[in-house]
C-alpha cells in the first residue's frame, strides 16, 4: 500500500505564494508519474500539474508560468510551488501517484486565496 501525505496549504493573499508538499511512503522512483489535482466545491477534480519518472512535466493552461512542480527523490517528496496566486486557485489540492494501473491519493490540503 502507498500512502501520500500532503502539507503546506493555507491562506494567502492574491499575488502571494505557497508551496505544497507530498511525501510518499515508498520510493518515488517506482511511480510512473506523480502530480497534483485540485477540486473546487461542487466541481470535478482537475489536473494542475504532473511529473513523470523521467522528469517530464505538464501543467494546466490556467497555471502555466505561475506554478512549478518538482521532485526530491532522496526525500520521496513532490512539491508544487505556487506563485502569483489568484482567488480562482482556491481549492483542495490532492496529490496523486500512478503505479501502472493503480492510482493513489493523498488526503488533500486546502489552499485559500483571499482577494
The dominant shape is globular
Low-confidence stretches: none
Question: Can you give the mean pLDDT?
Answer: 96
Number of alpha- plus pi-helical segments: 0
Number of strands: 11
Radius of gyration: 13 Å
Span from first to last CA? 40 Å
Secondary-structure content class: mainly beta
Strand content: over 45%
Features:
mainly beta, 7-stranded mixed sheet, 4-stranded antiparallel sheet, about 0% helix
Question: In words, what does this structure look like?
Answer:
This protein has 115 residues and is mostly beta strands. 0% of the residues lie in helices and 55% in strands. The chain has no helices and eleven strands. The protein has strands at 4-7, 10-13, 18-24, 33-39, 46-52, 57-59, 67-72, 77-82, 91-99, 102-105, 109-114. Strands 2, 4, 5, 6, 9, 10 and 11 form a seven-stranded mixed β-sheet that branches. The protein is globular and about 40 Å long. It starts with a strand and ends with a strand. The mean pLDDT is 96.
Summary?
This protein is mostly beta strands and 115 residues long.
Amino acid at each position: 500500500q502507498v500512502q501520500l501525505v500532503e502539507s503546506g496549504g493555507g491562506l494567502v493573499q492574491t499575488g502571494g505564494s505557497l508551496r505544497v508538499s507530498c511525501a510518499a511512503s515508498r520510493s518515488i522512483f517506482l511511480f510512473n508519474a506523480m502530480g497534483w489535482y485540485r477540486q473546487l466545491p461542487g466541481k470535478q477534480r482537475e489536473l494542475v500539474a504532473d511529473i513523470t519518472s523521467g522528469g517530464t512535466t505538464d501543467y494546466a493552461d490556467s497555471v502555466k508560468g505561475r506554478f512549478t512542480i518538482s521532485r526530491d527523490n532522496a526525500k520521496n517528496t513532490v512539491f508544487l510551488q505556487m506563485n502569483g496566486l489568484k482567488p480562482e486557485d482556491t481549492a483542495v489540492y490532492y496529490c496523486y501517484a500512478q503505479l501502472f494501473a493503480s492510482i493513489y491519493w493523498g488526503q488533500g490540503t486546502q489552499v485559500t486565496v483571499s482577494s
